Amino acid sequence: MGTIYEASRRTPLIIKGGGGLRQSAEEFTNLRITLDDGRSIPLTNLAHLERVEGPVMITRETGSRSTVVVANVSGRDLVGFVDEAKRIVIEQVQLPTGYYLKWGGQFENQQRAAARFAIVIPAAIGLIFLLLFSTFRSVSQSVLILTNIPFAMIGGVIALWIAGEYISVPASVGFIALLGIAVLNGVVLVTYFNQLRALGRDIDEVVIQGARRRLRPVMMTASIAAFSLIPLLFATGPGSEIQRPLAIVVIGGLITSTILTLLILPVLYRWLNNRELS
User: Fold this and answer.
1) Domain-located, residue 55
2) Which residue segment(s) compose the domain that 185 sits in?
3) Considering its fold, how many domains does the chain have in total?
4) Would you write out the chain's pLDDT as a tens digit for each of its 278 residues?
5) Is residue 65 part of a domain?
6) How many CB atoms are located within 10 Å of the residue 14 CB?
7) Per-residue DSSP letter, 56
8) Any domain includes 205
9) What is the CATH number of the domain that holds 113?
10) Which residues does 14 contact at the CB level (< 8 Å), separation at least 6?
11) Alpha-carbon separation of residue 42 from 23, 46, 90, 178 (angstroms)
């Protein structure tokens, strides 16, 4: 199998025969070719035959030959592994002219997702802030509710560390899911605080009674979401590599978000109220 070049023309050449030709080099070299005048000559009179080892299949991408080296990463984060691999390749591998490396697979997908998250997450937080401001008509209270977001992020990061997982695309999606739940708990508390303030209650009574009476709604919101994700923690089948990090982030974030919302948010509300009065 080969190619015959005639000026700018390329003609594929394929020699077909029985299965024995592929097994016996001697039989292949003694193969006789019939000419136009009826004479037959050995194939060795027309071509130089040589057995060589080469690629079974040549793949191309964007018009260039390509080959794939696969590596499965476990026990460490994907981005850190690729960064270290890039550094080692640059230091120890000298690529010939015309050769280049491209890092793809899950790493490429994660980099693409991270670039999108860099736009989507700030836009989502900005939209949430506008909705909060339209509801409370107060910049300070809107920012106060948004402080629940770091409360949730703390739990998600700690949960990943305890579980031995790393930041990935599913884990990032879990952090985004936490935004809505954390903000909802803050809205529940601050709305009730404002109702008690409208009744003329003292600020100390507002934060204490408000936190006590809103304990059940906040716990119900968090517990329903957390318990529904517990089966994903023990998933082992196909798709578990996506389900488990998401569940770990959401459950861990709900724990810290619920606790810190009930403990710190009332304190911040009281401090903010006293500052506005002064």
Assistant:
1) no
2) 107-277
3) 1
4) 567 777 778 787 766 666 666 667 677 777 777 877 878 888 777 777 676 776 667 777 777 778 888 888 777 777 788 888 888 888 888 888 888 888 887 778 878 888 888 888 888 889 989 988 988 888 888 988 888 888 888 888 898 888 888 777 788 888 888 888 888 888 888 998 988 888 888 888 888 888 888 888 888 888 888 888 888 877 777 777 778 888 888 888 888 888 888 888 888 888 888 877 66
5) no
6) 6
7) S
8) yes
9) 1.20.1640.10
10) 1
11) 18, 8, 51, 77
50 domain-assigned:
no
How many residues can be counted in the chain? 278
CA distance 178 to 219: 15
Residue matched to tokens 């003329």: 200
Integer Cα distance of 144 and 157 in angstroms: 22
Q: Are 28 and 43 in contact (CB under 8 A)?
A: yes
Maximum Cα–Cα distance across the chain = 116
Q: How far is CA 78 from the centre of its chain?
A: 10
Look up residue 241 and give its two tokens.
């590599």
